[in-house]
Amino acid sequence: MSQRFQVVTDSNIPPDVATSYVTNNGTAVPAAHVLNILGGTGATTSAIGNTITVSVQYDGMVWTDEAANFNISSQNGYFCTASLTATLPNAPSQGTTCYIFADTSSSVTIKAQGSDMIQVSSNISAAAGTAVSTTRGSTLELCYRTADATWHSISSMGTWTVV
């Protein structure tokens, strides 16, 4: 019994078969005709037949109830249930976000630190200024921009007084 083997070299690959795979961050080239597809943080990969599946797990933002003064943590959301002051992070990085939901008609104050400012709509606070709401249901999503040291409102609802 004889066996036949076909040896494929790069010069024998048909022109309609991809030999490099361009991504957003570099190009992958198969080695020994194998291309690895790996998941990063929060992502996994699986394959069956000719299908590769990339699954991304998004746990969402962590939300907590707050009834007393507290320091805001980056990438967190807060239901403020009593009169309080929430202090924004010191020395945040570009794109740091946080969410505030005033679940009280008492005063909810968001305070910037150092030379940071808060902008809600066209209103910009002084350095280390505040945004205050006394309207139940008011919400504020803030995102930090390092170029102007400002917490910019990405979305807001209700009434916020900026000082």
Give a written overview of the molecule.
With 163 residues, the protein is mainly beta. It has 2 domains: 10-56, no CATH class; 62-162, Jelly Rolls. 0% of the residues lie in helices and 44% in strands. The chain has no helices and 16 strands. It has a 7-stranded mixed beta sheet with strand order 5-7-9-14-15-11-12, with no helix packed on it. The protein has a 5-stranded mixed beta sheet with strand order 6-8-10-13-16, with no helix packed on it. The protein is elongated, with a radius of gyration of 26 Å. The N and C termini lie far apart (90 Å). The mean pLDDT is 87.
What does the secondary structure layout of this molecule look like, with pairings?
Layout: E1 21-23, E2 26-28, E3 43-48, E4 51-56, E5 62-66, E6 70-71, E7 76-80, E8 84-87, E9 97-102, E10 108-111, E11 117-120, E12 123-124, E13 130-133, E14 139-145, E15 150-157, E16 161-162
Parallel strand pairs: 5-7, 6-8, 7-9, 8-10, 11-15
Antiparallel strand pairs: 1-2, 3-4, 9-14, 10-13, 11-12, 13-16, 14-15
